[in-house]
Amino acid sequence: xxxxxxxxxxxxxxxxxxxxxxxxxxxxxxxxxxxxxxxxxxxxxxxxxxxxxxxxxxxxxxxxxxxxxxxxxxxxxxxxxxxxxxxxxxxxxxxxxxxxxxxxxxxxxxxxxxxxxxxxxxxxxxxxxxxxxxxxxxxxxxxxxxxxxxxxxxxxxxxxxxxxxxxxxxxxxxxxxxxxxxxxxxxxxxxxxxxxxxxxxxxxxxxxxxxxxxxxxxxx
Length: 220
What we know:
GO terms for molecular function: peroxidase activity; thioredoxin-dependent peroxiredoxin activity. It holds the Pfam family 1-cysPrx_C. One of its GO terms (cellular component) is nucleus. Its EC number is 1.11.1.24. By secondary structure, the protein is α+β, with helices and mostly antiparallel strands. The chain has 2 domains: 14-150, Glutaredoxin (3-Layer(aba) Sandwich), CATH 3.40.30; 168-218, 2-Layer Sandwich (Antioxidant, Horf6, Chain A, domain 2), CATH 3.30.1020. Helix content is 30%, strand content 26%. The chain contains 6 helices and 13 strands. It has helices at residues 24-28, 44-62, 75-88, 105-109, 152-167, 192-198, and strands at residues 14-17, 20-23, 32-37, 65-71, 98-100, 113-119, 122-125, 127-132, 138-144, 172-173, 184-186, 204-205, 216-218. It has a 5-stranded mixed beta sheet with strand order 5-4-3-8-9, covered by helices on one side. A 4-stranded antiparallel beta sheet has the order 10-11-13-12, with helices on one face. Helix 2 (44-62) packs across helix 3. The chain is elongated, with a radius of gyration of 20 Å. The termini are far apart.
């Protein structure tokens, strides 16, 4: 059976966290949530990552996006480690919950298991990140190996892309290397006539050899 992926509903797990007992669906409520795992507390790359998450927390909050971490370490370990995370980047406060999954059942259900990394108790979490929508479904996933820290600018860009597409009900998408404020592309299911109604500001069609007119850009 394939693991949790885009379009799947996130399991409604209930776990202890640094902010008390967390029921994932209740925590998501009507918001977007970045649900992310890390291999272990008191490890170098993870410390830089969770510090970066804390540093970017205000940007995610502006967009109505919540953060939710998880690893196999217990809550006491998470709380002690938080002191290091905050000290690494002074001024960054770890205000988001970090869930504990010592028996490793949750990371399996969330498709966050690293096939190669393990300790004496078994396999460890990978650097997985799911962006979950208000409908409790996975909208986007990143999967990184333990040797590679995540890029928070890209996570933020991905959030902006998802929110832009949702705001326009899937009629637009964002092209490669897109950043907020730049032109988006009009979806192929939208005819030129519909595009004229949806985007009165106009749109431009790329002149390509096929002359199929499918690559259309507009500002939103």
